[in-house]
What does this fold into?
Amino acid sequence: MRRIVLSICLLAFFGSSPAIADLKVGYVDLQRALMEVGEGQQAKAKLKGEIDKKKAEFEGEQKKLREDGMVLDRQASAMSEEVRIEKMKQLQARVMAIGEKGQKLQTEFVEKERSELKKIFDRMDPIVAAIARREGLVMVFEKTDSGLVFAESNLDVTNELVRTYNEKYPVKGGKPAPATPAPAPKDAPTK
It folds into this structure.
């Protein structure tokens, strides 16, 4: 749907403007920029640490549950029917609770990641707009969401976004990674 709307807008714009040759556009790879800006790297590392810690705790609970299940299996024949049924119900309730906890943790991690990354993307928007104005770009597309199949590498403003972002929002307690140049297209001439 997004591609259809974009196509209609582009057709309307191109069809109504006689100065198509003057049209300057660019694109940005926000996912790559997120991985290259210092705050993005810091946020990803922080989230990974939290996830790894909670995942280890969760896996410990799962392991304990499996061990308790094996103990119950071994001891079931020595138990009365009532006790065995009660223990099975308790074990089943723990299985359900741990399943719900796993789903809750997963949702929590997705929301936390979305929240952390939204802050960074919100800071990127005005930087992209400033780059576009400075470079005289009429439009800047997001590489992955726009349906962009091909564009010349000289239209990519991702490196400038990363450089400007890291200058404007330096990471405390660490040095951000430098912006890496975009890979040249396969059919681009080599120097």
Remarks:
- The CA atoms of residues 38 and 94 lie 42 Å apart.
- Residues 176-191 have pLDDT under 50 and may be disordered.
- The two ends are 41 Å apart (CA to CA).
